[in-house]
Amino acid sequence: MWPIPQPDLDARSVYATCVSKTRPAKVKARLELLEDAVAAAADEYEKAAATGSLHALKHLKDQPDGNDPAKGDNKKLTGCYTSRMARKGSAGREIYDQLIKSARRGRCPLCGHGFADTIDHQLPKIAYPLLAVTPANLVPACLPCNKAKGEAIPAVAEQQTLHPYFDDVSGQVWLAARLTPPPEPGVIFFVAPHPDWSATLTARVQRHFATYKLARLYAAQVGTELAALSDYLRGKPYRAAIDEIHDRAASYGNRNSWQAALYRALAANPWFIKSGCLNEWDD
User: Fold this and answer.
1) Nearest to residue 158, comparing CAs of 191, 195, 202, 194?
2) Residues 94-126: pLDDT tens digits?
3) What pLDDT shows up at residue 190?
4) Fewer C-beta within 10 Å: the chain N or C terminus?
């Protein structure tokens, strides 16, 4: 997971922009009456997200309609996102594009791998209409990650995936890899909790890792990497090969990238090269 800066956007202003061109006038007037409720919900959300407490916002679920679908306010609010922000040419489309572009190098901050071309609601808009266009609730994401989480809502803190705007675990090394020996040599990625982490943070990182299927995603990249490595090291002395792997392990700025984890595992297990396992990745 890559942390990215929280959008420098005021929730009230974003909402006002999205509803500014609403028609008919009757619907616009109703949405304008909800502006204070939306702004208050956004403020609660930011405070909860900053402390990993999105699960504590249950009182905002299904609001403002509650269990009275006849009012139709919830549908109007979710429409602020689908019709007045995400839709091309809509009043809020510029804000939508700005959020997409906030992804570092265009990559999904949830997995660090896919191309961020969608917006993920950390708390789903269908359950939290008041937060449908709250900037802090909108994260650029790749489509697979967006679909992976779906409409999941954390019931307790441990069930909350990491939030790229509020959670930063990049300062500690937590992604690890394990090499598997013949007859089927391979690499398994997993979370190795940092000793300074609380039980709750450990559970959240593991939840994030499982929700977005990162072990499978990263393992799928290994074949190409190891085949290229095997080709590069062919004919080189064993000591030179080991030095190369150590150099690569130290070269990644993102210490929790799958490549960094892979090379750390290779550096710690020279038997993988010495036994000829690496050659089995050749085409």
Assistant:
1) 202
2) 999 999 999 988 899 999 989 999 999 999 999
3) 97
4) C
